[in-house]
Write a structure and sequence with these properties.
Layout (H helix, E strand, L loop, with lengths): L8 H13 L6 H6 L3 H6 L7 E5 L4 E5 L8 H8 L4 E7 L4 H6 L4 H11 L4 E7 L10 H18 L7 E4 L21 E5 L2 E5 L2 H6 L14 E9 L3 E7 L10 E5 L3 E10 L2 E3 L7 E6 L12 E4 L11 E6 L7 E2 L5 E4 L2 E14 L6 E4 L3 E2 L4 E8 L17 E3 L1
Parallel strand pairs: 3-4, 4-5
Antiparallel strand pairs: 1-2, 6-7, 8-9, 8-14, 9-13, 10-11, 10-14, 11-12, 11-13, 15-21, 16-20, 17-18, 17-22, 18-19, 18-21
Length: 400
């Protein structure tokens, strides 16, 4: 982001100065992304920062998915908007092992990304400057082997994943090939759409395949935020998941069932005649106050298969790492698209095989880590969910 012009020079210089003053010089790049004052003081990345930069082929928006345990909720709402995940693993002695251990975050993040439908993956093996000896080929190969084996268990095909040895701090193999790793002949990926190869991380980003965008489906746009902008009015913001949003559309917001006309649509500070799936947009609506709308509502076209709230729904649930047993009545918090809401496991109907979906046990008393089950869920207030077949982004969720 720094090098590709996503952030202006003045901002960087200001942050660098603040970082030095607070003795966090070594955090300088992370610092740039942690733009909220509160976050900067806590030294943690919170909000899903939508940062943009350009490569030779794409505009890339980074949804920073933070590496602290309590931020998985943000990751869940962030990941489900991503076309590709870049998993950064630290090559330093002991650091990699901690991340990949049974309860480490590397594992959890990779599993979540796959479960939430992010099917393309790039692995950056970072901090190659701090291996022993520095820029060690055996260490890179060891990590590549280990990560390959466990992403394969999750469902990724390791042959379709680029593994790039990098140092984000020194810039090795980020934008251009490093001279420090003459042993690295480059990454290769093989997939049904063809092969790709390159030396550095930015080339791996350019090798991402743009997913087919479902423009032919009905409109679904989960709200990430709602702003009140002086002189303009109410501006909901979110990503078009399916369908097309244009000025003049009469939208309905579920589950509140509020209907209004879209006056204008904007992206990257430019007015759009239409927004398509994948676009993060703001749109101005008539006669609706900011107070009536909230994050987690979903906008759709009132005249074409509009979204509705559900008072209960049936879903397949996979238990990742949960201490103890889960039985009927369990009420965790559910994150689905941008909604965050308490949800009761009203009835665990059956246990199923995670890979085939076939039933293995009817009406189980309880389920535990590693199990997959079909469950009837009751949200504490109506929630806009859809079938995974019809609208995948609104049909996947996580509970914690």
């Amino acid at each position: 982001i720094y090098k590709c012009g996503g952030i202006d020079k003045r901002t960087i210089e200001k942050f660098e100065k603040e970082a030095q003053e607070m003795g966090k010089g070594s955090f300088k790049y992370a610092w740039v992304l942690d733009k909220l004052k509160a976050e900067r003081e806590r030294g943690i990345t919170i909000d899903i920062a939508l940062w943009k930069f350009e490569t030779a082929k794409y505009y890339v928006t980074i949804i920073d998915a933070p590496g602290h345990r309590d931020f998985i909720k943000n990751m869940i709402t962030g990941t489900s908007q991503a076309d590709c995940a870049v998993l950064i693993v630290a090559a330093g002695t002991g650091e990699f092992e901690a991340g990949i251990s049974k309860n480490g975050q590397t594992r959890e993040h990779a599993l979540l990304a796959f479960t939430l439908g992010v099917k393309q993956l790039i692995v950056g093996v970072n901090k190659m400057d701090s291996t022993e000896p520095p820029y060690s080929e055996p260490r890179f190969e060891e990590i590549k082997k280990e990560v390959s084996s466990y992403i394969k268990k999750i469902g990724y095909n390791p042959f379709a994943v680029a593994f790039v040895p990098i140092s984000g701090w020194h810039g090795d193999n980020m934008l251009e090939a490093s001279t420090k790793m003459p042993w690295f002949k480059g990454w290769q990926v093989e997939r049904k759409e063809g092969k790709a190869e390159g030396k550095c991380l930015i080339e791996a980003l350019d090798a991402i395949l743009p997913p087919a965008r479902p423009t032919d489906k009905a409109l679904r746009l989960p709200l990430q935020d709602v702003y009140k902008i002086g002189g303009i009015g109410t501006v909901p913001v979110g990503r078009v998941e399916t369908g097309i949003l244009k000025p003049g559309t009469i939208v309905v917001f579920a589950p509140a069932n509020i209907t209004t006309e879209v006056k204008s649509v904007e992206m990257h500070h430019e007015a759009l005649q239409e927004a398509v799936p994948g676009d993060n947009v703001g749109f101005n609506v008539k006669n609706v106050s900011v107070k009536e709308l909230r994050r987690g509502y979903v906008a759709g076209d009132s005249k074409n298969n509009p979204p509705k709230g559900a008072s209960d729904f049936t879903a397949q649930v996979i238990v990742l790492n949960h201490p103890g047993q889960i039985s009927n009545g369990y009420t965790p918090v559910l994150d689905c698209h941008t909604a965050h809401i308490a949800c009761k496991f009203a009835e665990i109907k059956e246990k199923v095989d995670r890979r085939t979906g076939k039933s293995t046990e009817e009406n189980p008393k309880s389920i535990k880590s590693g199990d997959a089950a079909i469950v009837n869920l009751v949200p504490s207030k109506p929630l806009c969910v859809e079938s995974f077949q019809e609208f995948p982004p609104l049909g996947r969720f996580a509970v914690r």
